[in-house]
Specification:
By secondary structure, this protein is mostly helical. The chain has ten helices and seven strands. It starts with a helix and ends with a helix. Keywords: Acetylation, ATP-binding, Cytoplasm, Glycolysis, Hydroxylation, Kinase, Magnesium, Metal-binding, Mitochondrion, Nucleotide-binding, Phosphoprotein, Transferase.
């Protein structure tokens, strides 16, 4: 079974939809923008993204959320007086700025590289950054896990993770909100639900996708990407030719 067969199979619902709705012919063009040399750059009068492309972009958008929020923070530092940074993003900030022990809490290596630059920008712009000072912790990401408490000073024990802000942090957040005249809120400040069903799993790469099909494990993950190299370029933040053509039309 080859990766190309999986891609063709995944594209069949989009082809059928087009034909069932009056299309006389269907030209499939996407992936890395290399279908056939004579097709690249052709500006078709009618074009649309298929079901597979929509699913791919939706799932990879979830994987890119952290990078998007770093960019959001950078942009908002030109517009706000105070900024509360909570949830998983806070652990990356606190690890970099306070050398806090964060246990197995999520840490973003790439985002960590620009946190000091963000803090410098905040200082230049007179923006007050509010980070949590205490936390609800757990030994694992599970609704039945043992829980505990931690502070920035004590750190989070090894093999434990921070899942929510503590009472002192909540008080700081409430004071900032009470001072505000306008509030922009993006995402929760802690775990909303910790169940096995809350985890998003994306399988990328043609060979791994083949393994999922071969051993009938496609229903065990959120999404099996057929993108291969294109999915990697999407995660790198590059513009995919097929998506660009649809967006510019």
């Amino acid at each position: 079974m080859r990766a190309d067969f999986n891609r063709i199979k995944a594209a069949i619902p989009s082809i059928k939809f087009c034909l069932d709705n009056g299309a006389k012919s269907v030209v499939l063009m996407s992936h890395l923008g290399q279908p056939n040399a004579h097709m690249v750059g052709v500006n078709l009068p009618q074009k649309a993204g298929g079901f597979l492309m929509k699913k791919e972009l939706n799932y990879f958008a979830k994987a890119l959320e952290f990078a998007d929020k770093i960019q959001l923070i950078n942009n908002m530092l030109d517009k706000v007086n105070e900024m509360i940074i909570g949830d998983v993003m806070a652990f990356t900030f606190l690890k970099v700025l306070n050398n806090m022990e964060i246990g197995t809490s999520l840490f973003d290596e790439e985002g960590a590289k620009i946190i000091k630059d963000l803090m410098s920008k905040a200082e230049r712009n007179g923006v007050k950054i509010i980070l949590p000072v205490d936390f609800v912790t757990a030994e694992k990401f599970d609704e039945h896990a043992r829980t505990g408490q931690a502070t920035v000073a004590s750190g989070i024990p090894a093999r434990w993770m921070g899942l929510d802000c503590g009472p002192e942090s909540s008080k700081k957040y409430a004071e900032a909100v009470a001072r505000a005249k306008q509030i922009v809120w993006n995402g929760p400040v802690g775990v909303v639900k910790a169940t096995a069903w809350d985890c998003i799993t994306i399988i990328g790469g043609g060979d791994i996708a083949i393994c999922c099909v071969k051993w009938n494990t496609e229903d065990k993950v959120s999404h099996v990407s057929t993108g291969g190299g294109a999915s990697l370029e999407l995660l790198e933040g590059k513009v995919l030719p097929g998506v660009d053509a649809l967006s510019s039309g």
